[in-house]
Specification:
Elements: E1 3-8, H1 20-41, H2 46-49, E2 52-55, E3 64-69, E4 77-87, E5 90-99, H3 105-122, E6 125-127, E7 133-135
């Protein structure tokens, strides 16, 4: 069964909308900083921290892309899409992270890690796979 997590860009977030290229840049930034951590530790941490390749299909251009696992026994796929919803008269953009049928425990762990990283970078509101909400923006 599929599972979904959402990173909502609320009025207190750093930005109110986002593109697929900006989300991809967040993943590249994550990959870059984890590889630097590995260099400091003297360990090839990059492959363990980001065991996926970013792939995009023509029909999903500008709307969604997916992460394909490089180690098929531990990691399969994570899908990342963009959308928006109208709530209380305001348009709220969000990033949807989907674990497709047959996902592994490794996929879910990495998806949670990536969601928390992106929500923190964007000062967003994270709705986790288990339904809980984490607030990464300053609340009044």
């Amino acid at each position: 069964m599929q599972q979904h997590a959402y990173i909502k860009l609320v009025p207190s977030s750093k930005q109110q909308s986002i593109t697929t290229d900006e989300v991809k840049q967040l993943f590249y930034y994550y990959k870059d900083i984890t590889s630097k951590t590995g260099t400091q530790l003297g360990w090839e941490y990059e492959q363990s921290a980001f065991p996926y390749s970013l792939e995009e299909k023509r029909e999903g251009k500008e709307r969604w892309f997916y992460l394909k696992g490089t180690d098929k026994q531990k990691y399969k796929y994570i899908m990342v899409g963009l959308d928006s919803e109208v709530t209380e008269g305001t348009n709220t953009s969000y990033i949807q992270v989907t674990l497709p049928e047959g996902f592994t425990h490794g996929d879910k762990g990495k998806a949670n890690e990536f969601c928390k990283f992106m929500a923190k970078q964007l000062d967003g509101e994270l709705h986790l796979f288990n339904g809980r909400v984490m607030y990464y923006y300053k609340r009044k």
